[in-house]
Amino acid sequence: MAGLILEGVTGAGKTRLFHAIQAWLARNRASNTKLFLSEHYSERVLEARHKAGDLGEGEVVAHPDGLLQPLSHLERLWSQSGFSAASGAARVVTVIERFLLGHMANMKCRQPDRWPAAYAPAIEGLYRRADALGLRTIVLVLPAGVLAERIRSTRAHRNAAWSAFLDSFGRDDAAIAHFAHWQALMLELIARLPPIVQPKIVDMSDVTRPEDYADLARRLCEEIFR
User: Fold this and answer.
1) By three-state DSSP, how is residue 3 classified?
2) Which of 137, 140, 149, 154 qualifies as a cystine partner to 8, CB 3.0-4.6 A?
3) pLDDT for 200 beyond 70
4) Tell me, what CATH number does 87's domain have?
5) 65 lies in which domain range?
C-alpha cells in the first residue's frame, strides 16, 4: 500500500490538491485500486462535537485510527496473496484529506491546555500504523501575507455558510488572525510530537494555477511510488 495524508490551514489548497492527485492517479495509475477519503469523513463528521466542546483527545485519536482499520484489512489480504511480492496494479493507493493534526489545532484554538504530553504515545501509535500502511503526511502551509489573501479569496468560491462563518469573526482581519494562529498552533504541535509524526512541509505560496497543482500532485505521487 502507498498513499498520502493531506493537512494544512484553510485556504492552503488541500481540496484542490486532493482533486489534482485524483486526476494524476486516474491518468497514470488507472489499474491500481484507489481509495480517496475527503475531510467530510476524516474531520467534518466530528465538527458539531468540536463546536460543543465535548470531544475528548482519546476520542479524536480513535477516529482516524478507525479509518485505518479497513486499510489494514486490505493490507493483510494483499500480504497473504500470491501477488504480494509484485508491485504495479496490485498496490492500493490511498489519499486522505485531513487526519489528526487539524483536529488537534482546532481543539488547541478553543482550549490551550488540550493535548498534554500524556497523549504523545497514543499519537505516536496512530502514526506508526499509518506509516506501516505506507501513508506519508503532507502539511500545506502559507506565509502570513499569502494566507490573508487566500482567506479573503475563499468568499468567492465557497458557499454562503462559509461567508457567514467568516462574518462571525466581525471582520476579515480577525478571521485571518484566527487562521494564522491556527496554523502556528499546528506547527508548534508538530514540533513537539515524536519523529514518526514529522511530515513533509510544503509552502503553497506559488501553487495557484491548475498546472501548479497538477505538477505538485505529480511530484508527490512519484515520490510515494519510488
Assistant:
1) strand
2) 140
3) yes
4) 3.40.50.300
5) 2-224
